[in-house]
Amino acid sequence: MKTLPKIALGACAWGNDGTFGGDLSAETLRPIFDTAMAHGLNLWDTAYAYGMGTSEKVLAGFLKDLPRDNYLVTDKFTPQCANGKPTAMAAR
């Protein structure tokens, strides 16, 4: 990737657990993802806390067949989601 994107697209509502938005399925989100990528919006922000991993899984499904240098992903780990397990990061 030659230049860094100036804007990130958030995927917080992509793992809906009732916290960050409505009921958005992968089928509903796919056209949004495709349109964003087609217009050069390729920096995606997600976190395990967004639907307890669902956001990450949906985004990963969209990205899996794309060349790795076509996108960037920022991710966040929330210790409260680890259920007190000291190896939670290793298991992800």
Question: Could you characterize the architecture of this molecule?
Answer:
With 92 residues, the chain is α/β, with parallel strands linked by helices. The chain has one domain. 25% of the residues lie in helices and 9% in strands. It is built from 2 helices and 3 strands. The chain has helices at 26-38, 54-63; strands spanning 9-10, 43-45, 72-74. It has a 3-stranded parallel β-sheet, with no helix packed on it. The radius of gyration is 14 Å and the shape is globular. The mean pLDDT is 85.
Domain unit count: 1
Spatially, the strands of the biggest sheet line up as 1-2-3
Count of individual beta strands: 3
The rounded distance between the terminal residues' Cα atoms is 26 Å
Question: How can the largest sheet be summarized?
Answer: 3 strands, parallel
Strand proportion: 5-15%
Query: Treating each run of at least 4 consecutive H or I residues as one helix, how many helices?
Result: 2
The low-pLDDT segments are none
Specify Rg, calculated over alpha carbons.
Answer: 14 Å
Order of helices and strands: EHEHE
Mean pLDDT: 85
Global shape: globular
User: Helical percent range?
Assistant: 25-40%
Given helix and strand content, the structural type is alpha/beta
